[in-house]
Task: inverse folding
């Protein structure tokens, strides 16, 4: 029995809600894995370096011992101590230690670290590790976007979750910098598959511009929630349970999400290079890039700066990002709908300025409580930028190109990844060279100077053929409404 139009509409709405839910959870999982390592990695790498130094020191001492040195041998039979190299036996009421005392590692390596210079040197290692994910994702995105246009969304999303599952398991059991670097890089491939396909799918099923903005705002709420939960979840689990536990929980969530995938259709869209030449798409992508670069620079450098200047504990390294995460969640949900009414260009312009001012204020904090207000401002402003620029990417494709969204959201994800690739890698080096305060000043000034470019997005010109088609469609609707009004008046 065929479905009525009402039943078809209801089925379509339920399908769209399911897609929105899966994209929401996908972004949640991806960004939890992205941020759960933020409080763990700096402290863990510092611990590994301290452990290596202790082992090296003990090996050096044992090699420098003279051949005729006395060693104590304890007899458990009669509680005596025999000295090798000297023919004597000494009876002792108490056991004598058989080996020299070994230097112990600090119980909490993030509480006032013993070597501040070594801690500063961690900036580059941590920055490169954090940047590896975004760098790989940046390289992968230009291939994933056109691929989703050809083969649909199901296979890329499925592959993305499988790769993220493997990456999460590697994070759980890796105990060296090389393996952690490989796990982080592998996550970039999985994130590219899931995020590009997910955002493209949302844009294709929500064709109305206002509904699309609202849906993308909700989906970005999943991203925000992942960023919100990740750092405190990672720091608390690392402090009280261990490094492995948070990653095993995320791996379990990835397996559950794999069971909820759905079929999709393939379409032919505008070539990627054509979209990359569009100046309006580039401005929107630039806003996404530089806005997120601020938090990308803070992720590896802020925990190290806190360890150096505030003697921060492990759990505090993640909790410091909590205000930014909460405000990002608030911002994306508020401006997902509000930006359409107030003008997305204006929302992005204000957001970029607020990001710049907020990051400049971060180094003025003297304790963890002083970080609350500037971090809240950073997160809220980035939420404004993302929730306005992500929908405008789909709108620009509708207005100026073919309405297929895989490639344009590949560009959006490239911009996002450039912020999180260049931010940690360059930020770590700058922080090591001239200090954390100057790093925040530089990125703050860059964001403020970029903000006026958003004015060009106020009224972007459309493709002439599309404008004519749209005007014809509107005239037809007006004509039908006019005839319906006349019939009502005659009756």
Result:
């Amino acid at each position: 029995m065929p479905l009525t139009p009402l039943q078809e509409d209801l089925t379509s709405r339920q399908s769209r809600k399911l897609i929105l839910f899966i994209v929401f959870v996908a972004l949640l999982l991806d960004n939890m894995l992205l941020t759960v390592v933020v409080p763990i990695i700096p402290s863990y790498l510092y611990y590994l370096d301290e452990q290596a130094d202790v082992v090296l020191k003990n090996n050096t001492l044992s090699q420098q011992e003279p051949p005729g040195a006395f060693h104590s041998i304890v007899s458990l039979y009669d509680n005596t101590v025999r000295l090798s190299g000297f023919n004597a036996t000494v009876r002792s009421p108490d056991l004598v230690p058989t080996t020299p005392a070994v230097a112990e590692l600090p119980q909490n390596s993030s509480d006032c670290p013993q070597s501040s210079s070594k801690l500063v040197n961690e900036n580059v290692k941590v920055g490169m590790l954090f940047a590896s994910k975004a760098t790989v994702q940046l390289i992968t995105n230009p291939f994933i976007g056109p691929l989703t246009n050809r083969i649909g969304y199901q296979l890329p999303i499925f592959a993305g979750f499988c790769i993220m599952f493997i990456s999460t398991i590697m994070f759980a059991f890796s105990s060296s910098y090389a393996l952690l670097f490989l796990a982080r890089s592998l996550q970039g491939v999985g994130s590219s598959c899931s995020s590009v396909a997910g955002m493209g799918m949302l844009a294709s099923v929500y064709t109305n511009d206002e509904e699309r903005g609202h849906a993308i705002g909700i989906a970005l709420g999943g991203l925000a929630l992942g960023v919100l939960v990740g750092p405190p979840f990672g720091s608390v689990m690392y402090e009280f349970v261990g490094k492995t536990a948070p990653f095993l929980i995320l791996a379990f969530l990835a397996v559950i999400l794999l069971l909820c995938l759905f079929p999709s259709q393939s379409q032919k869209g505008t070539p990627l290079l054509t979209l990359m030449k569009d100046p309006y798409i580039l401005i929107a992508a630039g806003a996404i890039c530089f806005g997120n670069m601020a938090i990308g620079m803070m992720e590896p450098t802020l925990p190290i700066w806190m360890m150096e200047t505030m003697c921060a504990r492990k759990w505090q390294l993640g909790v410091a990002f909590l205000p930014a995460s909460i405000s990002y969640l608030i911002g994306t949900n508020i401006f997902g709908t509000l930006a359409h009414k107030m003008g997305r260009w204006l929302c992005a312009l204000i957001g970029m300025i607020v990001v710049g001012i907020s990051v400049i204020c971060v180094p003025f904090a003297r304790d963890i409580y002083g970080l609350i207000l500037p971090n809240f401002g950073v997160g809220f402003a980035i939420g404004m930028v993302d929730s306005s620029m992500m929908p405008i990417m789909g709108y620009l494709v509708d207005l100026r190109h073919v309405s297929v969204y895989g490639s344009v959201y590949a560009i959006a994800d490239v911009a996002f990844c450039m912020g999180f690739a260049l931010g940690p890698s360059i930020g770590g080096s700058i922080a090591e060279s001239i200090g954390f305060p100057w790093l925040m000043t530089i990125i703050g000034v860059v964001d403020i100077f970029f903000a006026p470019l958003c004015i060009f997005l106020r009224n972007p010109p459309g493709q002439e053929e599309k404008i004519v088609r749209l005007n014809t469609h509107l005239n037809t609707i007006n004509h039908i409404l006019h005839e319906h009004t006349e019939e009502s008046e005659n009756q």
